[in-house]
Every structure is written in structure tokens, then in C-alpha cells.
Design brief:
By secondary structure, this protein is α+β, with helices and mostly antiparallel strands. It has helices at residues 2-16, 35-41, 127-141, and strands at residues 44-54, 63-75, 80-87, 100-108, 111-113, 120-121. A five-stranded mixed barrel has the order 1-2-3-5-4.
Length: 142
Amino acid sequence: MRRVIATLGVLAAIVACPATSAHVSAECITNGENPKKRLDLYPVVFVGEVLGFESSDQREFLAYRVRFRVIEAFRGIEVGERILQIRQTAESFTFAPSQRVLVYAHGTPNDYSTQCTATRVVVSDDREVLDLRRLSRVSLRR
């Protein structure tokens, strides 16, 4: 009888909890970073278009390889088609095909992350991109 009651309890729990995917979110706290601080802080900064995805060869953590067309390179990367392995966390930016994004990444070439960065979708006259262009020209003159 206990087994029947336990089984019914488990079935009731399954029915009561819909089978939807869980959405996890988190909040990052920043210290009022501006484009200059971000350019100095993150080793990889660029504007690019997301072309697609490839599976990751890193099985021990959730990561995927994102194929970008780097349109403007501000730090740590060259213009052109590039593939970056991105570690995914609740605080990371979620890339989608055809997005034009401003990417701030930290980590190493085989393990980048956008966790708690200002990575986001941008438009053609984005104020922060304009600031990064200006900052890049100033640093080239030095």
C-alpha cells in the first residue's frame, strides 16, 4: 500500500509540474563602466555579425562555438570571419544568427566568456560603438 501511495505521489508531482524548459537568469552588478574602461578591461572587443554555431569540443562545461563576421575590431581580434568558443552561464549574452553585436569577451582563446559584460545587440549609429571608434583612433595616434 505504501508503494502505491508513493507512486501516486510521484505521478501527482509530475502532472503538477509542467514539462517546460527552465529559464535561469542572474543579475550582474557593474561599477558604472564606460566605453574606455570596458576597452581597457576586456581583452577582446569587436562589432560583428553572428553567422552561425558549431558544436564545442569542451564537454566539461556548457560552451559553444560562435562563428562571427568581425566588422570592426577594437581589441584582441582581427576583422574577418572568426570562430570563438564561448562559455555559457546564466549571466552570459545569448547569441542568435544574424544579430549584429558589440562583443566584450574575457578569458582565453579556447574559453571566452561574455559573463557580466556589456555585450549586446547594436544598431548602425550606436553611441557606444561611435565612442569605441573615437577611442581607437586616439590610441593609434599615441
